[in-house]
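Inverse folding, one chain.
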C-alpha cells in the first residue's frame, strides 16, 4: 500500500513538473510573440534609434531633471512674460533684418533701378526739378526654373578645288566635334548628369522627372531616361572598376546588404544590393548588385581581398572569410540592437548590458580624433577590461535564462560573435560598429521606396554603378551634377593612365586648385 502511494506521489510530481515546464515554455513563447509585435510596431511607427524604453529609465530622467531644476537660481528674466492680447497672438512675429543665408554673397546679381518720371520729379512747392540725393537698397532672392536649350552642331566640310579639277586624288575633310558620352545621342552631358543626379542622389523616380521636364517645356519619357542611364553606365564602367580595385586595397572594408526587388514574371524577385565602403586611405563607396543573398556575391567581389571585413552576423560571410583568409570584425551596434529589442522580456538585464556597451562607446568618443596608435592604446587600456567584464556577465545571464528566451537569443548572438566583436580592441583602425555601411544603404532604401523595383539585371547593375559614383561624391562633399557633367565631357578623350584623376576625391583637389588659380592668377606658376 505504501509503495502504491509512493508511485502515485511520484507520478503527480512528474506531472506537476511537466505542467510547470510547459507553462514556462508557453510564457517564453508569449514573450517572443509580444516582442515580435513590438518590433514591427517600432519599424512602422517608432523611432529609429536603439534606445531603452523602460519606465525606470524615464523615471530616472525625470528625477535628474527635477534635481537640476531645483539647483538653478531663479532670475527675473526667467519668469513667464505677461499674456499678450489675442490679436497679437494671432500675428506671426518676424525677426528683424535678413537671416544669415549661406552663400548669399556668392549669388549672381541682377540690378533693377527704379526712378521717378520727369513729371514726378517736379517739386510740388516751386515746380523745379528735384535732384537725386541717394538711394534705398533692398535684396530679394529669386529662383529661375531650369530650361532646355538646343545645341546646334555644324561641322564644316573642306575640299581642294584644284585637286578636284585636275582629278588628282580629291578628298573631303570634315571638321571634328568633341566626342560625346552617347555616340550620335540627343542628350548632352549636362542633361545626362542632371538625370543621374536626380535619380541616384536626390532619389527622384524617373516618372516624376518626366513630369518635371514636361512642365519645363520638353517631355522625355521615363523609358528614354532609363536607356540613357544605362548608356552612361557603359561609359563610366572603367572608373567604377577602378574604384572597386581601390576599395579592395583598403585595410578595413565595411559591408552590408539590403533587398533590391527586381521585376519578374509573377512577382518581384528578391535580388540584393551590397555596399563595400573603403577606409580613409581608399575613400570610395562601391555598390554591387546580385540576384540573391548567397555568398557567391561577396566572394566574387572580395576575391583578392585578405585583410579585415567589417560586417554584421550574416552567416554567408563565413565562407568568404575562410576562403580568403580574411579577418572578420563584428558590429557592436547590431549586438546592442538585439538586446534593446528583447528589453521587455528582461528589463534589468537589458539595462545593465546596454550600460556596459555604452561605456565602450564612451571610450570610442575619447579616441575619435586620435591617431590609430593612440586609439589602439586607449582601447587596450580601457575597452579590454570592459569587454572581459561584459563577457562574464553574458555567461552568467545565459545560465539564468531558458534557451528560447528572447534575451537568451540576444545574448547568444553576442557570444557567438564574441571573437569578431573583439577585433576592434586589437586594431586601432577598425571601427566599433558597422554604421558607416548601414548609412550608405539608406540611399538604396530611399530609391527602392520611390521607384519600387529595378526592371532587370541590367537595371540593377546601372543602379549599383551610378549609386557608387553619387555616394562617393557625397562622401567627399562634391556636387554630383557638376562632377558628372565634367566627367562626361572629358572621359571620351582620356587615356587609361589619366583615369585616376577623375576619381571623385582626386577631381575635387584638382577642381579646387583650378578655382584658386582663377581667383588668384598671380599665384600660378608653370
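Residues assigned per position:
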Amino acid at each position: 500500500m505504501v509503495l502504491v502511494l509512493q508511485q502515485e506521489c511520484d507520478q503527480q510530481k512528474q506531472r506537476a513538473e511537466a505542467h510547470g515546464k510547459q507553462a514556462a515554455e508557453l510564457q517564453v513563447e508569449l514573450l517572443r510573440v509580444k516582442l515580435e509585435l513590438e518590433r514591427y510596431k517600432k519599424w512602422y511607427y517608432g523611432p529609429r534609434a536603439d534606445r531603452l524604453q523602460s519606465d525606470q529609465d524615464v523615471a530616472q530622467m525625470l528625477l535628474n531633471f527635477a534635481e537640476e531644476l531645483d539647483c538653478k537660481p531663479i532670475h527675473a528674466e526667467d519668469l513667464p512674460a505677461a499674456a499678450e492680447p489675442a490679436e497679437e497672438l494671432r500675428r506671426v512675429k518676424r525677426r528683424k533684418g535678413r537671416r544669415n543665408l549661406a552663400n548669399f554673397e556668392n549669388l549672381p546679381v541682377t540690378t533693377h533701378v527704379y526712378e521717378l518720371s520727369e513729371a514726378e520729379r517736379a517739386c510740388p512747392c516751386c515746380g523745379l526739378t528735384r535732384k537725386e540725393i541717394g538711394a534705398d537698397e533692398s535684396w530679394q532672392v529669386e529662383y529661375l526654373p531650369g530650361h532646355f536649350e538646343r545645341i546646334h552642331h555644324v561641322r564644316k566640310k573642306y575640299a581642294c578645288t584644284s585637286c578636284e579639277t585636275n582629278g588628282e586624288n580629291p578628298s573631303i575633310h570634315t571638321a571634328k566635334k568633341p566626342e560625346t558620352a552617347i555616340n550620335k545621342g540627343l542628350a548632352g552631358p549636362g542633361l545626362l548628369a542632371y538625370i543621374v543626379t536626380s535619380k541616384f542622389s536626390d532619389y527622384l523616380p524617373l516618372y516624376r522627372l518626366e513630369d518635371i521636364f514636361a512642365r519645363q517645356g520638353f517631355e522625355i519619357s521615363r523609358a528614354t531616361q532609363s536607356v540613357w542611364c544605362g548608356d552612361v553606365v557603359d561609359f563610366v564602367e572603367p572608373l567604377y572598376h577602378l574604384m572597386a580595385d581601390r576599395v579592395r586595397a583598403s585595410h578595413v572594408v565595411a559591408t552590408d546588404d539590403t533587398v533590391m526587388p527586381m521585376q519578374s514574371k509573377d512577382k518581384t524577385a528578391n535580388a540584393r544590393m551590397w555596399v563595400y565602403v573603403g577606409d580613409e586611405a581608399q575613400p570610395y563607396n562601391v555598390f554591387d548588385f546580385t540576384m540573391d543573398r548567397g555568398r557567391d556575391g561577396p566572394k566574387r567581389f572580395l576575391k583578392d581581398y585578405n585583410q579585415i571585413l567589417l560586417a554584421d552576423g550574416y552567416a554567408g560571410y563565413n565562407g568568404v572569410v575562410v576562403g580568403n583568409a580574411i579577418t572578420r570584425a563584428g558590429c557592436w551596434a547590431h549586438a546592442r540592437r538585439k538586446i534593446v529589442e528583447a528589453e521587455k522580456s528582461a528589463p534589468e538585464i537589458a539595462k545593465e548590458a546596454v550600460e556596459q556597451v555604452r561605456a565602450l562607446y564612451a571610450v570610442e568618443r575619447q579616441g575619435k580624433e586620435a591617431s590609430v596608435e593612440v586609439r589602439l592604446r586607449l582601447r587596450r587600456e580601457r575597452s579590454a577590461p570592459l569587454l572581459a567584464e561584459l563577457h562574464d556577465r553574458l555567461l552568467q545571464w545565459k545560465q539564468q535564462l531558458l534557451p528560447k528566451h528572447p534575451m537568451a537569443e540576444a545574448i547568444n548572438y553576442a557570444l557567438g560573435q564574441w571573437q569578431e566583436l573583439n577585433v576592434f580592441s586589437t586594431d586601432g583602425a577598425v571601427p566599433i560598429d558597422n554604421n558607416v555601411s548601414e548609412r550608405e544603404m539608406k540611399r538604396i532604401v530611399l530609391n527602392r521606396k520611390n521607384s519600387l523595383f529595378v526592371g532587370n539585371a541590367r537595371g540593377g547593375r546601372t543602379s549599383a554603378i551610378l549609386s557608387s559614383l553619387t555616394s562617393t561624391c557625397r562622401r567627399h562633399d562634391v556636387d554630383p551634377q557638376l562632377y558628372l557633367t565634367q566627367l562626361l565631357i572629358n572621359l571620351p578623350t582620356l587615356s587609361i593612365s589619366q583615369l585616376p584623376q577623375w576619381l571623385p576625391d582626386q577631381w575635387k583637389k584638382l577642381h579646387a586648385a583650378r578655382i584658386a588659380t582663377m581667383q588668384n592668377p598671380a599665384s600660378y606658376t608653370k
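The beta strands are 157-159, 172-174, 252-262, 269-277, 285-290, 308-310, 327-329. The two ends are 114 Å apart (CA to CA).
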